């Protein structure tokens, strides 16, 4: 089975992820991706998925066509055998021989028709299993990829919020440490800004 566009897109995503670098001061399991590029690949993947599923549904539908064609061939063989049988029977001089030959022909034709039906059924079932397995593998890869993207996004968001909280706590702590010094500077500023008394005021 040839490579589908969905497989190509998944390979492109994997190759793109391999080229992405991780953020500074982070563990090796995190990377920074270009959002526009990732959304473009996911958008095309979302558009191609229904087409691929329809294509494999069409393959599954071919099972009925294979069985119908095999049934038609089997019926044609049996019909031809019956014609030969009738022709032999009509020759009354060799009636018994005709019956024996006719029965042999019918038995051979029946066996051949059954073989065709068995082979067609086996081929159709193999096609069906292959198509279902391929579709399931494709969806499993998509599920894993989307799950990794979601987990990576959640992890980045949590880390970012923790950094903001730590920075906020540091600011609060620094202001609390500066509180006594700030009050002293304010008092000195008020004293220096007071106007001296004049002779009229004395």
List keywords for this structure.
ATPase, coiled coil, 202 residues, rod-shaped
Q: How does this model look, in words?
A:
Residues 53-119 form a coiled coil. This is ATPase. This protein is an all-alpha fold and 202 residues long. It has one domain (5-153). 84% of the residues lie in helices and 0% in strands. It contains three helices and no strands. α1 runs antiparallel to α2 and α2 (35-90) packs antiparallel against α3 (95-192). It starts with a helix and ends in a 10-residue tail after the last helix.
- Average pLDDT figure: 76
The number of helical segments is: 3
Number of strands: 0
Oligomer: single chain
Q: How many strands, which pairing sense, and closed or not: the largest β-sheet?
A: none
- Low-confidence stretches at least 5 residues in length (pLDDT < 50)? none
Rg over CA atoms = 42 Å
The total number of structural domains is 1
* SS class: mainly alpha
Element order, helices and strands? HHH
Residue share in helices? over 70%
């Amino acid at each position: 089975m040839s490579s589908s566009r969905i497989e190509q897109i998944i390979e492109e995503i994997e190759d793109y992820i391999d080229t992405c670098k991780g953020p500074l001061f982070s563990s090796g399991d995190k990377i920074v991706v270009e959002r526009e590029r990732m959304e473009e690949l996911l958008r095309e993947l979302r558009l191609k998925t229904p087409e691929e599923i329809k294509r494999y549904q069409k393959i599954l539908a071919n099972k009925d066509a294979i069985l119908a064609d095999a049934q038609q061939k089997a019926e044609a063989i049996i019909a031809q055998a019956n014609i030969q049988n009738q022709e032999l029977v009509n020759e009354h001089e060799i009636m018994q021989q005709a019956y024996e030959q006719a029965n042999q022909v019918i038995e051979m034709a029946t066996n051949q028709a059954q073989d065709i039906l068995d082979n067609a059924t086996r081929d159709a079932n193999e096609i069906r299993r292959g198509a279902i397995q391929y579709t399931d593998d494709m969806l499993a890869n998509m599920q894993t990829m989307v799950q990794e993207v979601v987990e990576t996004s959640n992890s980045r968001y949590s880390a970012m919020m923790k950094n903001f909280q730590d920075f906020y706590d540091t600011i609060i702590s620094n202001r609390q440490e500066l509180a006594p010094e700030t009050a002293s500077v304010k008092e000195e500023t008020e004293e220096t800004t007071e106007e001296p008394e004049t002779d009229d005021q004395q």
